[in-house]
Design brief:
By secondary structure, this protein is an alpha/beta fold. Helix content is 51%, strand content 14%. The chain folds into two domains: 161 residues, Rossmann fold (3-Layer(aba) Sandwich); 119 residues, N-(1-d-carboxylethyl)-l-norvaline Dehydrogenase, domain 2. The strands form two sheets. A six-stranded parallel β-sheet has the order 3-2-1-4-5-6, with helices on both faces. A three-stranded mixed β-sheet has the order 7-8-9. The longest helix is centred in the middle third of the chain and has 30 residues.
């Protein structure tokens, strides 16, 4: 294809996304705060930039996959940020899970640079990013999405256009709110099972095949049982997402009481040192509260 694409952020999701862009034939420039994480992509043909502005220089599509509002703001608008060099007519794609308020602000900056912004966060985790099976939740105008579609297709199984700029960010927070509450309730439920005398595998089989069952319950319960906390979704990022969700819901006069309770469990896990592990580790402080070993 040859089209110049830049991707900023090579963490749990960004690295897999970048590799699929390379496999699809895009000319790819990557930026990551820790440059060593880019080595595999460089070996596969990507160009490594030392700053976001260098990465964006000459790119027709620039994609961000970052941790939060602060990291996104720094990459797009900070010193040596994307907006210093991005060319007229470029499509800026913010795929991070960030607040709709920040997306609205970033859209204004994009207009000033005569670029177009899509907010396009994803559903899926590390495995889906590596397999090119993400779902993009897109907010923005049709013309920008049409330009970005080939790149997005190389990383995804579906592209869902939800409406104007900000729509993707709103939908992603609703999605992650429901996921976070389910993971927190599963942590409590599984701890209850483990202390109840029930056969754990039989009990989980009932839950997975019954009304509470979901792909998330199946995947997370397995990680909790095996105490396998290799990162698919960082615990501290789910905590952040629940916080953003509460703020955005409050803007719609909705009080997310269950998000507050779930967030307290995630915060307790951070306090115990699990912030940089998979969100399934939220169960560990519950398991240890009464003297059980990790």
């Amino acid at each position: 294809m040859g089209e110049n694409v830049a991707i900023l952020g090579l963490g749990t999701m960004g690295a897999g996304m970048a590799m699929n862009l390379l496999k699809a034939g895009f000319s790819l420039t990557v930026y990551n705060r820790t440059a060593s994480k880019a080595q595999e992509l460089v070996d596969a043909g990507a160009r490594l930039a030392s700053t976001p502005s260098e990465a964006a220089d000459g790119a027709s599509i620039v994609i961000g996959m970052l941790a939060d509002d602060a990291a996104s703001r720094e990459v797009w608008t900070g010193k040596d940020g994307v907006l210093e060099t991005v060319k007229k007519g470029a499509v800026l794609i913010e795929s991070s899970t960030v607040s709709p308020g920040w997306i609205s602000e970033l859209a204004g900056y994009a207009v000033q640079r005569e670029a177009e912004l899509l907010d396009a966060p994803v559903t899926g985790s590390r495995a889906q990013a590596q397999a090119g099976q993400l779902s993009f939740l897109v907010g923005g105008n049709d013309s920008a999405l049409q330009k970005a579609t080939p790149a997005l297709k190389s990383m995804s199984k579906e592209i869902i256009h939800l409406g104007p700029v900000g729509s993707g960010a709103k939908m992603k927070l609703i999605n992650n709110f429901l996921c976070g509450v389910q993971v927190a309730s599963l942590a409590e439920g599984l701890t209850w099972i483990e202390r109840s005398g029930l056969d754990r595998e039989k009990a989980l089989s009932v839950l997975k095949s019954g009304a509470p069952g979901s792909p998330l319950l199946g995947a997370i319960s397995a990680r909790m049982v095996n105490r396998d906390y290799a990162v698919n979704f960082l615990l501290k990022l789910m905590t952040k997402d629940l916080s953003y969700a509460q703020v955005e819901a409050a803007n719609c006069d909705v009080d997310l009481k269950t998000a507050e309770i779930a967030r307290s469990l995630f915060e307790a896990a951070i306090a115990k040192g699990y912030g940089d592990e998979d969100m399934a580790s939220v169960i560990e402080p519950l398991r240890t509260r009464r003297g059980e070993n990790r």
